[in-house]
Amino acid sequence: MRSLLIAALCAVATAAKAGDQGDQQSCGGSTADMVECLKVQTAQWDKRMTIAYQQAMKNAGEAQHDQLRAAQRLWIQYRDANCLYYGLGEGIIARIDAGECLRRMTEARARELESLGR
């Protein structure tokens, strides 16, 4: 039941963002399919985050430059530690929870960094 709920939530979230991301797909199927789908989506958001970070670094003032670099490094450590918590949970659903955590947090950081460039 929980895996069906997660699959449905993932599909709804993906559909809601499809216009924004363009080539996102619904994460359904087996657990392995869902985990792989989340990896692909996370990689897309990671690329977008990297581009936004590079642009923010170009736009940052001298005083902000080092702070943004430090913040990004610490954010990555936090994201990885936070999502590992979900990955260490019980059962195979933990893999989906961890994958969704990585995707969701990476998307949020990409959007945050993109807003710095405006």
UniProtKB/TrEMBL annotation:
<keyword id="KW-0732">Signal</keyword>
<feature type="signal peptide">
    <location>
        <begin position="1"/>
        <end position="18"/>
    </location>
</feature>
<protein>
    <recommendedName>
        <fullName>Lysozyme inhibitor LprI-like N-terminal domain-containing protein</fullName>
    </recommendedName>
</protein>
<dbReference type="InterPro" id="IPR009739">
    <property type="entry name" value="LprI-like_N"/>
</dbReference>
<feature type="domain" description="Lysozyme inhibitor LprI-like N-terminal">
    <location>
        <begin position="27"/>
        <end position="113"/>
    </location>
</feature>
<dbReference type="Pfam" id="PF07007">
    <property type="entry name" value="LprI"/>
</dbReference>
